[in-house]
Design a protein that fits this description.
The chain has twelve helices and three strands; from the N terminus they run H-H-H-H-H-H-H-H-H-H-E-E-E-H-H. The chain is mainly alpha-helical.
């Protein structure tokens, strides 16, 4: 298998991270018990028996080019795909900001990467970000107002589907359209949308810890965090409701 001199618990765990699979999914892919996968994390120097070596060889051979590249990065096996940029400034921000730290930890968990992989990926990407272009892109996004977003969504999806449609209201003589899908049965149309009449509450739930980010979502998250770091944007790890109440 591509130059690591035989599988160990450490390299097997690296393959799992490269494939972005949970212990259960990785065990299912290999046709083994989840306890065996867990033991590789607990005993990184353990060398699996020859039959297991062959199973891991097969899993590696069936991996995609992107998955093999991630494996090579995690193990140091093979030539570097690119020259790593200077990440000192990005590393300083990542280490000093607990809010970004929480986002990086969440990303490691939900992309099933090894601890610290998201930090390295974001630091390297942040060092490559053209801050001027990022600011210009943010400015162009700011030109798109709520009405334009609502109109674009309505044109794409349509304003009505059966009894359901996009919620609209009025403020004086001004019509206000939204991108909220609703129907008459969901609304008390006689209720004024202002205190103390409005009893709207936002229901929240903790995300499923088993939720897995795919390749596209993980890359988008890394790029967004990298732009946040490069542009020195403040990131808050706090419920939106709390921020709204404090405004």
């Amino acid at each position: 298998m591509s130059g690591v001199g035989g599988w160990t618990g450490r390299s097997a765990s690296a393959l799992q991270s490269a494939l972005r699979l949970s212990n259960e999914k990785f065990a299912e892919k290999l046709g083994i018990g989840a306890r065996t996968v867990a033991s590789w994390h607990q005993k990184p120097d353990l060398r699996p028996q020859s039959e297991m070596q062959q199973v891991l060889d097969t899993a590696y051979e069936r991996a995609s080019d992107a998955e093999r590249a991630r494996f090579a990065e995690l193990t140091g096996d093979g030539p570097a795909v690119h020259t790593r940029p200077d990440t000192k400034e990005a590393d300083r921000r990542l280490a000093a900001d607990p809010h970004i730290g929480a986002a990086l930890e969440w990303l490691d968990q939900h992309a099933y990467r090894s601890p610290g992989a998201a930090r390295r990926a974001v630091a390297e990407q942040a060092a490559r970000v053209d801050a001027q272009e990022a600011y210009a892109r943010a400015t162009r996004r700011a030109w798109v107002d709520q009405r334009a977003v609502t109109d674009a969504l309505a044109e794409y999806y349509g304003r009505r589907h059966g009894d359901h449609g996009l919620y609209a209201g009025s403020c004086g003589d001004q019509a206000v359209n939204t991108s909220i899908l609703t129907c008459a049965d969901w609304l008390d149309l006689a209720c004024e949308l202002r205190p103390p009449h409005d009893g709207l509450t936002i229901a929240s739930a903790r995300p499923d810890p088993r939720e897995v980010l795919d390749e596209h979502a993980t890359k988008a998250a890394v790029n967004r965090l990298a732009e946040t770091v490069a542009m020195n944007t403040r990131l808050m790890n706090a419920p939106l409701a709390n921020r709204a109440n404090s405004a």
